[in-house]
Structure prediction request, 958 residues.
Amino acid sequence: MSSTDIAIHQTDMHHGHDEHEHHHEQNFIEKYIFSQDHKVIAKQYLFAGIIWAFIGGFLSILFRLQLGWPEATFTFLEPILGKWVLNGKLDPEFYLALVTMHGTIMVFFVLTAGLSGTFSNFLIPLQIGARDMASGFMNMLSFWIFFIASVLMFISLFIETGPAAGGWTVYPPLSALPQAIQGSAAGMTLWLISMALFIVSQLLGGVNYITTVINLRTRGMSMTKLPLTIWSFTLTAVLGLLAFPVLLSAALLLIFDRSFGTSFFLSDIYIAGEALSNTGGSAILFQHLFWFLGHPEVYIVILPAFGLVSEVIATNARKPIFGYRAMIGSMLGIAVLSFVVWAHHMFVTGMNPFLGSVFMFLTLIIAVPSAVKVFNWIATLWRGNIRFTVAMLFAIGFVSLFISGGLTGIILGNSALDIQLHDTYFVVAHFHLVMGAAAFFGMFCGVYHWFPKMFGRMMDEKLGFVHFWLTFIAVYLVFMPMHYVGIAGFPRRYYNWTGFEAFNIFTDLNTFISIAAILGFLAQFIFLFNFIYSIFKGRRATENPWHSNTLEWTTPINPGHGNWPGEIPAVYRWPYDYSKPGAEEDFIPQHIPFSQTQSSNLPQERVLE
Amino acid sequence: MITIAIGISILLLLVVLFQLFRIGTLASIFRGSSQKAVGTTKTSNKVNSTLLLLFLLIGGAAFAWSFVSAWDDMNQPLASVHGEWTDDLFWTTMIVIGIVFVITQILLFWYSYKYQHEDNKRAYYYPHNNKLEIVWTMIPAVVMALLVFAGWQTWTKITSAAPADAVVVEVMGKQFNWMVRYPGPDGKLGVTKTSLIDATNEFGIDFSDPNSHDDIVNPLEIHVPKGRPVLFKIRSRDVIHSVFLPHFRQKMDAVPGMPTKFWFVPTKTTYEMQSETGNPEFKYELACTEICGRGHFAMRYVVVVDEPEDYEAWLEKQQAFATQNPDYVAKFQAAAQQPVTENAAVAAE
Prediction:
């Protein structure tokens, strides 16, 4: 039992240093714009993430129109897209720019910044019992550097040569040579600068998260009493801290190749009627550097969702999360393994086949901790007393999507099978389910669950249910059929497939996928309405609306700067004492000492009374 | 006018929806359901848990139906020896993950339905069970070990060195088409240099290398013989491309500055495949699968598998580049008279 391993002081001691509720009056700018309050910064990340998600989603609708109706003319898009639509036809390079920016925006700006940025910032101090982050100033810098990165990326959408268009993985030489594709001109420069700033912002945030969790836990909050959310955010931050600098180095080398005539990634190139002088570089080197970040990145996206979902499932199943330690262990395992599997993205690059076998072996090991997590979630539901809040529905949806998308990873991680499936729609379906849609579900789950703590009001449940069901159905309708298209070998990033007899099938299916995608996108406006409306007009929240155990629900409904008006509560037990036999209520919050719960204490907890 | 009408009706629709939403909210306050702890109202729990169960049943059935009806389309005709191994391994793995998929999804949705909230019920306090956890860690570990082993064996066989008697075809990617070169009767490809590329000599073949004189460049289609190993030597001269032969289950990136290769044994001629699929137009195709720019989606080349004797006959008919462009090659030989040592060094590479 995790709640027995440290000595608990029985008397309430006073913290010496936490009596600083006295704050000077903050003006509007200090309070809402250049705020150092972690809760405000979290909301800033959330708003930015939501805006980016709608932009990213809209881009995907544009290219789904092209894929669903390859023969159609899109003159009605001319008012928005201008010269990118010529005689009703989408420009093929613009199509590539769309998929590139969709990927970049979703992976980095929504599911990294929007997810970690929001929930790590919001929940770490609140759940570990701290007044704020270790460095509020760095935290503020982190957001505003992210903001500048966002502005640059946004500007790149509107420049004449278009945004980066070489795929979100920006492999050189395509991304290095403006002769090869227009998007590699100014668009790519902006992309690289924006990403460099983005990385700086992530590092500032990550250092802060880790420091805060290690140093600022309240009295009694040992590492084995942390909610799984905090474990997941911490591991996410560690991954980011180790992986993002490698991407920065790759980006810098690419900047050198593009602008200063070096040949890190370029060699033996003849393009646009001339032979380039670059020699000796390796295009594959970039892929190694990129995926050394790129693979941990997918876990940076999914780990916070693991944490949020675990917390929501335990709370709403009214049961302790099954196998708390196994959950931590599996996250640790996944985090470590995520650094040694990157080359499974490169099985067919001409890499030494022996390396391929090593990476196949390491990749398939990840299935084990992932499976443990799924089993534990399902075991948590077993014999629960499940409350179907909207957050809970999204959590269940998350597990379902994670299973569906995760299992095909076993196929793609197998180098022999990857030969046929690499860069086909099978891959697209796989990662959209397992890290795209699933991470979005984790994010929705978090927003619906912690909305009352963020804004002091509840989101409307019925609208939430409608949003969930439309989204859940749309996600499956979009991505399940994509597997068929992928098994048939349809390559991704194709403007259309009609030039090939082998791929000139499944036209109806692609139209079907596009319709489902459009409906799924429209359903998100229900969320947007609910979100904005509820901030101002939602039903007022109670202090602990979900009857949850974690510390954030002991703060006032609208916590001020410093979170707790009085002293920070001490922690006595793990966060998962739900439905404990003998207890009066079906939950015992973490700050309730064992002396007050004698009727429900387990034999080994008697000594702590 | 019509646009305005559409705009107004959409606006009205939104207003109606908003009013419905308000009515719903007010009604729930009158019913008193907003007084209960969140997530414990009977109707919404009943509705959502039932919907979850229905989703499992209807969704599962729809998935099974669509899978079966897409079956013929998703299985591209197969025409290589190793393709049978990978197809077998693929469907075996699909069955394994399919079983896990079905079991876990059923449990997930069934438990969600079965253990929905009831007012006078308590959940079962069950924080962990080490034995159970060890068991369900070991099972996937063992299954993974078996899959890794099977994958590793297949992968090693596929990526092993090509037999010495393999038919060699060089495939070079460029924006936005493929260039193909056969080594000719001597079986050796001539040396190439990026700096020698021009509009005529798109490979940059160095014709001072005698091996290049019988090289056949850019035939209309790639011809390969049935039943013999075929080695593709792959490279690119600008950005990364990827050679993908869907019917032969073969793929390899074409990387500038780093030649790559794969080999395979075709098992069915184009003609045989045409009668087998009942499609007299059937053609083996080569596609690009690494994003390479504007024309990425249109890099197509046709591959023809012949009976070995037909292949030899076809090869006989092909003219070497040097034969077709004697003037161009002559320039080289004139220039090559002087710097002999340099060229020898390159050829030795």
In short: Chain A is about 60% helix and 0% strand. The two ends of chain A are 16 Å apart (CA to CA).
